Amino acid sequence: MGIIKSASASSCWRGLDYYNKKKVINCKKINEYEYEGEVLGSNNEKYKVLLNIEHPRSSKCNCPHAKDRKVVCKHIVALYFMVFPEEAKKFEEDAEKAMLEYEEYQEQLYDNVEKHIYSMSRGELQEALLDVLNIAPEWVYERFVRDYVER
After folding, report:
1. Does residue 50 contact residue 112 with C-beta atoms inside 8 Å?
2. What is the reported pTM?
3. Mean pLDDT value across the chain
4. Lower CB count within 10 Å: N or C terminus of the chain?
5. Residues 112, 116, 119, CA angle at the centre, nearest 5°?
6. What stretches of the chain show up as alpha helix (H) in DSSP?
7. Spatial contact of 37 and 61, defined as CB atoms under 8 Å apart
8. How far apart (Å, rounded) are the C-alpha atoms in residues 32 and 79?
């Protein structure tokens, strides 16, 4: 399993941000699978990072989030992207592709729901609205009552 798959989505995005903002201060190859470096944290503290690309969970960082834990934090991800900039580019491209696919899915879903709503009779619409209000969170019901019923 690779560094990106071992990290949380938040750590990946924040690590990419740190990489793009040039917060990786230094980087040195130790051996075929390990790199060490320093990464500036959000409080401008320097964190020591050991990146192990063969065994990602063996990577280490002395930040509060990852210290003494087998966690791939944003600092480890930032160092990874520094060592492998093509992976940073791939991560961004994959995310953009996923976002476009999601937007297309949302548009198709909206179109399908719209078609279904226009095909319904008045009685079916009223019943569907009551069903939605029965399962909706309390704030939806309160807003509906405030905006439409109390007029």
Report:
1. no
2. 0.71
3. 91
4. C
5. 145
6. 3-6, 9-20, 74-83, 85-119, 122-135, 138-144
7. no
8. 15
